[in-house]
Write a sequence for this structure.
């Protein structure tokens, strides 16, 4: 191997981002990493100043002026996209008249690695860039692991919160979930109807057929209620056999009566459990948020309870709207939910 070829080989290993220029400033050859700067890898044969813009020193506009700055740090800009800023040092080349420019990405190395698809093998083994890349990769891996952990924790938190708001038997909202949904509707100033419904003769199912039958009945009733309301409405099991339905943006009494009547009719059909019939029905009472100057959860639940008692008094299996006359007729304000034991007969 000639001295010149040995020199070129050493430069490829020690300075893989170098270019060698002839006396006119034409690139004779380039190191393996420098060749990756162009998509076709053809740096050789191009004029150095056609490929790189010298930003500092500013007075360098020709190869002759460039030759005079041998040994000084150069601030360069790659003329082709993505127009990467680079650093360089020019020295005399291995043969007379030649010049060597050793290039570096400087602090933009991370972006350059991405843009030019470089790896640690594209840098000299002693280049501190390799250590920087390792640190960047380690940081990236740590951040990725942290993001994945945060996503899992977030998912677990959401699942835990959802579970805390869900009735495990029926899959409906529980009392806590209903309280939250009701509080949001009130806080947002939404117009809605609150329907309180419980099952007639449910206690008899539990007493004569067992709690397994009672649980099955509750599950079937929950499915009926969910099917008869819209997806944006809320259905909650708030007691043993008590349910609250929040109907959003529905204040037409006729529409609300149709919903209640459909639910009651379907609930009243015999429910088969292990070949035996479970016979229950439903009674409901409803109040409308539009009827109050100041809407409170306790007032709504209490008034719906009053209307529910009226349905019970009139013979069950029916729906009643709240009115002040009902409260006066009953003579007292019933306590808010839950009151399953008192009505499940």
């Amino acid at each position: 191997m000639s001295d010149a070829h040995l020199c070129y080989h050493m430069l490829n290993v020690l300075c893989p981002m170098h270019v060698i220029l002839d006396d006119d400033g034409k690139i004779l050859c380039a190191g393996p990493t420098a060749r990756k700067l162009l998509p076709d890898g053809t740096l050789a044969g191009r004029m150095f100043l056609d490929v790189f813009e010298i930003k500092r020193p500013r007075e360098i506009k020709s190869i002759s002026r460039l030759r005079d700055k041998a040994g000084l740090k150069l601030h360069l800009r790659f003329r082709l996209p993505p127009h990467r800023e680079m650093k360089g040092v020019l020295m005399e080349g291995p043969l007379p008249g030649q010049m060597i420019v050793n290039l570096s990405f400087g602090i933009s190395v991370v972006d350059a690695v991405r843009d030019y698809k470089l790896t640690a093998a594209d840098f000299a083994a002693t280049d501190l860039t390799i250590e920087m890349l390792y640190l960047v990769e380690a940081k990236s891996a740590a951040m990725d692991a942290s993001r994945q952990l945060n996503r899992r924790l977030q998912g677990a938190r959401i699942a835990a919160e959802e579970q805390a708001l869900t009735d495990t038997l029926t899959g409906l909202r529980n009392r806590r979930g209903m309280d939250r949904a009701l509080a949001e509707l009130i806080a947002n100033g939404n117009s809605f109807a609150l329907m309180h419904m419980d099952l007639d003769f449910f206690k008899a199912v539990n007493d004569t057929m067992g709690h397994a039958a009672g649980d099955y009945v509750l599950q079937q009733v929950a499915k009926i209620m969910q099917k008869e309301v819209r997806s944006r409405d809320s259905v909650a099991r708030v007691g043993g056999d008590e349910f609250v339905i929040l109907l959003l943006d529905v204040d037409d009494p006729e529409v609300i009566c149709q919903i209640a009547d459909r639910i009651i009719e379907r609930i009243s059909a015999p429910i088969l459990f292990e070949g035996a019939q479970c016979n229950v029905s439903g009674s409901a009472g409803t109040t409308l948020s539009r009827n109050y100057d100041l809407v409170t959860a306790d007032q709504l639940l209490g008034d719906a309870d009053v209307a529910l008692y009226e349905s019970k008094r009139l013979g069950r299996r029916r729906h009643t709207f709240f009115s002040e006359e009902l409260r006066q007729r009953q003579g007292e304000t019933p306590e808010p939910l839950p009151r399953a034991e008192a009505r499940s007969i």
User: Anything to note?
Assistant: Residues 128-164 form the longest helix (37 residues). Residues 337-345 have pLDDT under 50 and may be disordered. DSSP finds twelve helices and 13 strands in the chain.
